[in-house]
Amino acid sequence: MYVKPDRVIDARGSYCPGPLMEMIKAYKQAKIGEVISVYSTDAGTKKDAPAWIAKSGQELVGVFEREGYYEIVMRKVK
Amino acid sequence: MVNRVLILGDGDAGTIMANKLRFNTNIKDVEITVVGKSKTHYFKPDGIHIAFKMVDYKKSVKPTDFLLNYGINYINGEITKIYVEDKFVTLKSGKNLAYDYLIIATGDRFVPEDIPGYDGEAKHFHDLQHALELHEELKSFKGGKIVIGQSSIPIMCPPSPYEFTFLLEEYLNSRGLKDKTELHYIYPLNNVFSIPNVADYVSKIMDERGIIKHTFFNVDSIDPKNKKIQSIEGENINYDLLILVPPHRGQKVITDSGLADESGYIDVDRYKLTYKDYDNVFVVGDATNLPISKAGATAHFESVYLANRIASETSGNLYDEVYDGSIACTTATGYERAITLYFTYNKPPRANFDSKMDYFLKWQSADTFFSSMVRGIA
User: Fold this and answer.
1) By three-state DSSP, how is residue B117 classified?
2) B377 to B1, B70, B203, B329: CA distances (angstroms)
3) B211 CA to centre of own chain
């Protein structure tokens, strides 16, 4: 289910590891419970971002294939 | 008409750029001015050797103005603001410098204050002073747990943390301390380096040498009292000695001039190295946010392209070549082993073998750098 994000990071055009590092930066700034969405045109993000979310114990809301880019949505739970 | 080229920065990128452009242009047609605040030019890749006293640090340093070729004006001063719309730059001295072409080569800087507990606790080898201090620290090391790595991405010379780790492992071996020491390597991504095939190669060597890897480790804070480093991902590691490359940002003047966000890295056209729609404003070296290594080798390759382009344009010719992201660098995998990586935006480097011959290239690189590369000859 899609959840409306509190923060949207548009990292389209940025190459690996740019989108992931942008997501980590947004995570640091976010409050617990906030939903962060990252747009990326780099296919590597589709694999790396969920792996980072799992490692850091956050919640992966979903990985969505949009027109010409991917959207990765996470919730900060701790 | 004389074209005024103003180069901001007197590090690798600014110096190579100025020298190459001087070779390619007539002194009557193109006036080149370099502005920077360095008194000396330090060959940063030697940091990993200086920490082990493998080279005499005095050979890694030259006076800044000595490295600029004849026919280049040099102003030792601090830049306070860049006005790209009005084509001028202000200096702390109160002087204004107008230009026709601007080349931003301001590099980046350390921001240890971004990590609580870093200052006074973590050691590193990324500048001369810290490399010398680290040497003293290593001399008195008697065994224990060493944590090595980088705080975040990006950093200058991305391979340097694994290069240092391999040299350290051999250093400890030579001192009979290997069995008394645990080496822990931390890295922000899901492998030990940002380029997948190089990461796999380096990771295999780490396994062979008993180096313990911690991936997805983005440093959150350091607790000096309890000798503990904590990651954003929630992992804690205790240490006896912490060797950590500090976080980096672009220069403050870049952010203050509205050319970049708080990261300080400028968004540039990856093929033309231009800033936004300004076809007379270029960015080279570590100041860009390009997805390639922040290294002197990158500045060198970018300068070859840009010097040709500006020389061509100032002669009234069209120049339709692009910068393809080419870089070549040699990285150490031990005392007498190294691997040379050559890559472009679209072609990853081959990482098949390391060799003694590649290490010879690494060993000679300070002499090669000062005598030819930085002079714009190579």
Assistant:
1) coil
2) 27, 13, 36, 17
3) 25
Residue B312 has pLDDT above 80, yes or no: yes
Phi, psi of B144 (to 5 degrees): 140, -150
Domains by residue range for chain B, with CATH: 3-49+60-107+251-324 (3.50.50.60), 112-247 (3.50.50.60)
Checking if the pLDDT of B367 tops 90, the result is no
Residue pair B245/B124 in contact (Cβ under 8 Å)? The answer is yes
- A48 touching B (Cβ < 8 Å): yes
Confidence of residue B15 (pLDDT cuts 50, 70, 90): very high
Contact between residue B292 and residue B328 where contact means Cβ atoms under 8 Å apart: no
- Of B346, B349, B347, B345, which is closest to residue B329 (Cα–Cα)? B349
Positions of A marked catalytic: 16
Q: In what order do the strands lie in the sheet with A35-40?
A: A7-10, A35-40, A70-75, A59-65
CB–CB contact A78 B234 (8 Å): yes
Instruction: Give domain A7-75's CATH number out of 3.40.50.300, 2.120.10.30, 1.20.1600.10, 3.30.110.40.
Output: 3.30.110.40
Measure the N-to-C terminal CA separation of chain A; round to a whole number of Å: 21
Alpha carbons B233 and B31: distance in angstroms, whole number: 51
pTM above 0.90, yes or no: yes
Contact residues, chain A, for B213 at CB < 8 Å: none
Domain map (residue ranges) of chain A: 7-75
Give A2's contacts (C-beta < 8 A, 6+ positions apart).
Answer: A61, A62, A64, A73
> Residue B109, Cα to own-chain centre: how many angstroms?
10
Cβ of B189 within 8 Å of Cβ of A27? The answer is: no
ipTM of this complex:
0.92
Backbone angles phi, psi at B108, to 5 degrees: -135, -175
Q: Which two tokens stand for residue B308?
A: 């040709």
Dist. CA B153–CA B161, nearest whole Å: 12
Tokens read off for B82: 């860049």
Which of A10, A14, A36, A56 should we substitute to test contact with B (largest number of B Cβ atoms within 10 Å)? Answer: A56
DSSP structural state of residue B2: P
Q: Which of B62, B50, B6 is nearest to B30 (CA)?
A: B6
